[in-house]
Amino acid sequence: MGGRVNEDLIKERRKCTFDIKELTHIIDCGEENTIKRKQIDNYILNIKELWDDVPEEYLSHKERYENAIKKAFIVLKVLRQLHTGNIQITDHRTPTNVYSIQDGIFRNVNPLLIHIGLFWSTIAAQASTEQQAEWLQPDSSMIGTYVQTELGHGSFIRGIETTATYDSTTDEFILHTPRLSAYKWWPGGLGNTANACLVMAQLYINGTCHGLHIFLAQIRDFDTHKPLPGIKVGEIGPKMGFNTADNGFLGFDNHRIPRTNMLMKNVQVLRDGTYVKPKHDKLTYGSMLLTRVTLISDLAYQLSKAATIAVRYSAVRRQSPIKSNEPERQILDFVSQQHKLFITIASSHVYRVVGLWMWNSHKRVTADIHEGNMGQLPELHALACCLKAISSRDASALVEQCRLACGGHGYMMASNLPQIYAYTTAAVTYEGEYTVLLLQTARYLVKFWRLAAEHKPLPQNFAYFEDYIKKNFEQWRNSPEGIIEGFKAIVAGKTKAAYDTLQCNLRNGREFEEAWNMASVQLTNASEYSTISRNDIEALQSRYEELLALIRPNAVGLVDAFDIRDEVLCSTLGAYDGRVYERMMEEASKSPLNEDVVNESFHKYIRPVTMKNKL
Ligand SMILES: CCCCCCCCCCCCCCCCCCCCCC(=O)SCCNC(=O)CCNC(=O)[C@H](O)C(C)(C)COP(=O)(O)OP(=O)(O)OC[C@H]1O[C@@H](n2cnc3c(N)ncnc32)[C@H](O)[C@@H]1OP(=O)(O)O
Ligand SMILES: Cc1cc2nc3c(=O)[nH]c(=O)nc-3n(C[C@H](O)[C@H](O)[C@H](O)COP(=O)(O)OP(=O)(O)OC[C@H]3O[C@@H](n4cnc5c(N)ncnc54)[C@H](O)[C@@H]3O)c2cc1C
């Protein structure tokens, strides 16, 4: 759409006091990465077949999937070409990723998300060298997914009921779904797309259960795509979001796979049925750990999209004067609006930085694990659980705040904020539900609090527990260091309170697990435990208001620096040129309800009632 840029946005961009490009380079981790990202954006976004004539929302459930799958395979083909061609993608999970572009192409979810994001990465991380050589061929016929959750069990994966029983006479595993609750339910791409999958199942050898293991199973014929004998597979139906992801169900009726289809890098079953244990019990959970780490950066990106839309719109939208004799003001001038939006910009940066830090930590710990050193794994798991939980919860709350900050227009699908919300809130549940993950972190913290309470030596990272017990915490200081000290005090105080409740429940004769459950609200909720006073809070509040005023002239510059193209934002409210009302009218004209001047339902249903006595 051509046309002039909105005057208010032009003025906002003139006001900006910093170099927008420099911030973009920081976000991309360097100018080189920005250049590379833009090259890839241009390359992919210029493929005409990827763009729709009819907005996605007007398609039926089936049409949406078919449209998405057409695009998914164009993107897959391009990705393969990019990997071998002139434009090199070094690592799709680093900030120079191509993953973000898919938001624009699909306006929903790529049905191959799990194939690319989880299937291949799990094989790469958990299959033996020989298995990788066989399965990770660039021209492989396999389209796979990650099949773990069942109808009856998602959070408590030790409760998974699908079995893989070793038959030493044929050198095969028999995959079986013993009852309805054991049906796999949810995996992305399973419904119609995948012809293979990684299945999480309980391993049985000679009647002994060895717990959960991962198996590669072909489920459809590579040529005809028909389900193989013994496989019952389908799609689970419409959801709040993720409607192009063809999430599916799957049942096995004594389906046989070769023994060599168990992922055997960390654990093995030998030909005679000997079980070779892994070096750490939870290495099988590695893919979940990796995805939790990846998600933090993805959620930061979703926040940057929501902030871009809401800030640009708030600069364009004028409503109400501040003083009655003045013209109407940009809604961005209302301090309450700034409070809603600037937190979103800041949170995007926070989770981007933390996500990157976690990504690097994951790389480091994985390298250690390869060397046989598991020492850092528990801390990484505790951090990943906590950060995935709070980043997803914060992101969905803030995206919703941005949507509300756009008033009625934020409720339009054409603003793209409802879709961003539906995508973001799913992350609170998948890959480890919020509360369940926080309880994993609580478990880790309580373990170290027990050491502190028993005056046993603590690792350096937990020295502040001891400080708290010895009341070594400094008085509150209104400075970044003071705030960090304050957070340490809160964690220590919170952990102490939860630990004390736990001990009290145990003294009252409860068993540990029951006592833990009774303390679980305390174990997940935060409280104020620092030395902060009423005066400190007032000082912080006024400092905060000063900061909002300082940020105000740079607000549009800050979101421009996220450098998200209009084709990816997909928003009438958030486009770079700020031609909000023109775009809204143009989108409305695409509604099928505007195709006929008089809809045929008038003649069928309305007229017979409204004209009944007049005919
Ligand atoms: C343009 C191009 C575009 C192209 C596209 C390109 C794409 C490419 C880009 C890709 C981008 C990707 C974006 C992603 C999008 C995602 C989409 C949706 C994916 C959704 C997938 C899923 O949704 S998939 C299912 C996930 N489903 C869970 O997430 C279950 C949670 N449930 C548990 O995870 C366990 O149930 C739970 C609670 C740990 C208890 O497990 P449990 O009962 O066995 O263990 P216990 O609690 O008894 O704990 C016993 C001890 O194990 C310790 N421990 C436990 N876990 C540990 C671990 N992992 N590591 C170390 N230690 C661990 C613990 O700390 C204890 O330690 P200690 O004893 O020392 O205290
Ligand atoms: C969009 C989407 C995509 C998905 N994709 C995949 C996929 O590709 N592959 C796959 O295998 N799975 C997938 N899943 C499934 C997902 O991983 C699970 O839904 C998730 O792990 C939560 O498990 P659940 O549904 O069993 O929830 P439940 O565990 O039944 O949670 C329900 C409630 O019970 C509470 N609860 C449960 N256990 C405890 C506890 N111990 N202590 C306190 N509270 C507890 C929870 O906090 C929550 O409030 C997907 C899910 C969604 C929504």
UniProtKB/TrEMBL annotation:
Highest taxon, organism lineage: Eukaryota
Keywords linked to the UniProt accession: FAD, Fatty acid metabolism, Flavoprotein, Lipid metabolism, Oxidoreductase, Peroxisome
One GO term describing the cellular component: peroxisome
Location relative to the cell: Peroxisome
GO molecular function, one term: acyl-CoA oxidase activity
TM ranges: none
Protein's name in the database: Acyl-coenzyme A oxidase
Higher taxonomy: Eukaryota, Metazoa, Ecdysozoa, Arthropoda, Hexapoda
Gene that encodes it: LOC112051253
